[in-house]
Design brief:
mainly alpha, two-stranded antiparallel sheet, 2 strands, globular
Length: 103
């Protein structure tokens, strides 16, 4: 169940385009690169959101998401012209997959 909760929490971290980024795990409001737990980090890429949501790296959530996109999360998130909607759809699919695989 932990992986599903992590995926839901991660999706919520990037649920609007203003809270999502490309090319960095996290950014500050002004667009500067930030540590995931850095002061002022307000937007995240898909991988950054998973790490932030789990407090480290929920490998089950990470692996489920990777299986859904069939590859690297960072590449998927950053590959132009990837859209915010496509990343959210991948989270939705990963959440569904996590629900289906949990007892």
């Amino acid at each position: 169940m932990y992986d599903k909760k992590t995926l839901i929490k991660a999706r919520k971290l990037i649920d609007t385009p203003e809270k999502w980024t490309q090319g960095a795990l996290a950014r500050k409001k002004a667009g500067h690169v930030s540590d995931i737990d850095g002061k002022g980090a307000v937007c995240f890429c898909a991988l950054g959101a998973i790490i932030k949501a789990s407090g480290a790296l929920d490998t089950d959530a990470y692996n489920i998401f990777r299986r859904v996109i069939d590859g690297s999360i960072s590449t998927f998130n950053d590959d132009p012209p990837r859209t915010h909607a496509e990343v959210l759809a991948a989270f939705d699919a990963a959440i569904s997959k996590a629900e289906a695989t949990q007892p």
